[in-house]
Design a protein that fits this description.
protein-transporting ATPase activity, mainly alpha, cell membrane, transport, about 120 residues
């Protein structure tokens, strides 16, 4: 298993987690914490801090995703040579040269009308 495959798997997992964390949040500030009665000051099990956790996890996952993408970019070229085989002059074959038409041959123009 190559390093690029490992990075690609981690990128997919982190991206999925990031989508889940963003979808759980409410854009108007309620989010998961308002579902558990976020209006009161007395909270059970620390649900009041759910918004902070989701905010911090969003930033962490976004940062991890960027770092993984940049790190995977370093592993892409590990098995590929930097030179192009198509531009190598020694290995290319020459194109066949077609003979020029002689003066007595008339080129076909597609016009068959006689004047």
């Amino acid at each position: 298993m190559s390093a690029f495959t490992i990075f690609l798997t981690l990128i997919v997992i982190v991206a999925f987690l990031l989508v889940v964390v963003i979808m759980v949040q409410n854009p108007k500030g309620g989010g998961l914490s308002s579902s558990f009665g976020g209006g009161g000051t007395q909270q059970l099990g620390g649900v009041k801090k759910t918004g902070d956790f989701l905010d911090k996890s969003t930033w962490f996952l976004a940062t991890a995703l960027i770092i993984l993408i940049l790190a995977s970019n370093l592993t892409i070229d590990s098995g590929i040579s930097a030179e192009s085989k198509a531009l190598d002059v020694e290995e290319t074959t020459e194109m066949p040269v077609l003979p020029a038409p002689s003066a007595d041959e008339t080129p076909a123009t597609g016009d068959t009308t006689d004047e």
